[in-house]
Specification:
The chain has 457 residues and is α+β, with helices and mostly antiparallel strands. 41% of the residues lie in helices and 15% in strands. The two termini are 42 Å apart. The relative contact order is 0.13.
Length: 457
């Protein structure tokens, strides 16, 4: 006969949360990998000895990690998901008899204890340490890259940088930003202030998030940040994270900081570094070679941008004269330094070129100019490395950092940051990288676990 299940509420339940989580579940594996109790000890000094007990900071961290592991980008929604999901409750140590923290608790701690202690960087480094102990990091071949992440600001919030003082009268966010800038870079004389950047993107700033910069790739420009990753190529473990405004120059500066931090923190100096052409400036290539790091990076080279004219390779250098000789035998002599372009400048006189029969094939100007980088030996060394098999391997392994950025935006859900201000954005990037490393660590340790033996007796 057909059964009928009446909907009644029994007076007592026998229910053990531990029994409901499968052994192979991602959160159970992560819980076995890393002990997060150090967070409580690290933040103990930030709590008063009097008053009511607060929410355990380890629980808050575990709640945030659940959000980044499963792409839950809203803290309001995260609280609701934890309320309904057994595995989330188990991982965060919240039993059914315990109240789930309100979403506002995250914001209060973020602007207080979390920011002052730098705890998210410590959590990221603790997970990296566990990856090192597990043998997931070789430390020989690394890759660096950055991706643009849209800021939590509308493109319509754009104002000229000079107008920030007026906007600050109406906007609390801008007032706080200008106060922080003034505190970090005090200026006594208005004439000592830095000149306004010349590029159109740098001249404008968002009144909603002044630390973001305009950037656009494959679409309209919008206020954005760069999320920079330094990864170990062996297993794609993220060793360094930097949040910067979306400026081209910031990519190379962030790469240098991450390499120095990895060497200072873990004593790791790679044999080679792979990157795309954005990192191929002579200055950065020379910096890497000085530290015995082979730059597997395409060189930024503008020597062949005008194929209609004679290229720089067709001019022969005379070291005794410190000059170049053109295909027609004229001397292109040294004229000085180009400070902005970091180059040595060579130029013919107008009279030399005026009567030359090959002028139309050489230049469209009154005379021919040649610019040679200060770092030309480093650039040439990078060109020679491009012919090696190790360089080709680094180029193939670059897809690992691209895969991490794809995961960041598709799985973690960080196409656009939720918080404003560089330090808030850095928190999100650290937590996202921590979640990505945790997934790889849990997968690696699970593979190395011995298979269960079957009893045949």
């Amino acid at each position: 006969m057909m059964g009928l299940q009446p909907r009644t509420e029994p007076l007592f339940y026998y229910f053990r949360l531990e029994d409901q989580i499968p052994e192979h579940h991602l959160l159970r594996r992560i819980d076995r990998c890393v002990d997060f109790s150090f967070v409580r000890e690290r933040l103990r000094g930030a709590y008063s000895q009097m008053g009511r007990p607060s929410i355990d900071p380890e629980i808050l961290l575990r709640l945030l990690l659940v959000g980044y592991l499963y792409g839950i980008t809203s803290e309001r929604r995260l609280v609701e998901e934890v309320r309904m999901h057994l595995a989330y409750r188990w991982f965060t140590h919240l039993g059914f008899e315990q109240e789930i923290p309100d979403h506002s608790t995250f914001s209060k701690n973020r602007h207080g204890r979390f920011r002052e202690s730098g705890i998210f960087l410590e959590v990221f480094e603790e997970v990296v340490r566990r990856c090192l102990e597990a043998g997931l990091v070789e430390g020989k071949r690394m890759t660096v890259d950055g991706t643009a992440v849209r800021a939590n600001a509308s493109p319509q919030s754009r104002v000229l940088r000079q107008e920030l003082g007026e906007v600050a009268k109406l906007s609390k966010t801008v007032r706080e930003y200008l106060a922080e800038v003034e505190q970090e870079n005090p200026v006594t004389d208005p004439g000592d202030r830095e000149p306004t950047p010349s590029s159109a993107a740098a001249r404008f700033v968002s009144a909603t998030d002044p630390e973001a910069c305009w950037a656009g790739k494959g679409g309209p420009a919008a206020p954005s940040y760069y999320d920079q990753y330094l990864i170990d190529n062996a297993h794609g473990i993220i060793l360094g994270v930097e949040a910067t405004p979306a400026r081209f120059r910031q990519e190379m500066l962030a790469a240098r900081r991450m390499l120095e931090q990895v060497k200072g923190r873990w004593g790791i100096c790679p044999e080679s570094l792979g990157a795309d052409k954005a990192y191929g400036s002579g200055e950065f290539l020379a910096w890497l070679l000085e530290r015995n790091i082979q730059p597997h990076i395409p060189v930024i080279d503008r020597r062949h941008q005008t194929p209609r004219y004679f290229t720089q390779d067709q001019f022969q250098y005379d070291p005794e004269e410190n000059a170049y000789r053109c295909p027609q035998g004229q001397m292109v002599r040294y004229r000085g330094l180009g400070v902005l372009t970091q180059s040595y400048l060579y130029r013919t006189s107008e009279s030399q070129c005026r009567a030359c029969a090959m002028k139309r094939k050489c230049t469209r100007g009154a005379n021919r100019r040649i610019s040679v980088s200060w770092y030309e030996p480093a650039r040439q060394a990078a060109r020679e490395l491009a012919k090696t098999a190790a360089y080709q391997q680094s180029r193939r392994e670059r897809n690992k950092v691209e895969a991490l950025f794809s995961e960041l935006k598709q799985r973690v859900g960080l196409r656009q940051v939720r918080l404003r201000g560089l330090w808030n954005v850095a928190e999100q990037f650290y937590l996202a990288a921590t979640a990505q490393n945790l997934k790889r660590l849990a997968r690696w340790l699970t593979r190395r676990e011995p298979a269960p033996t079957l009893c045949t007796a």
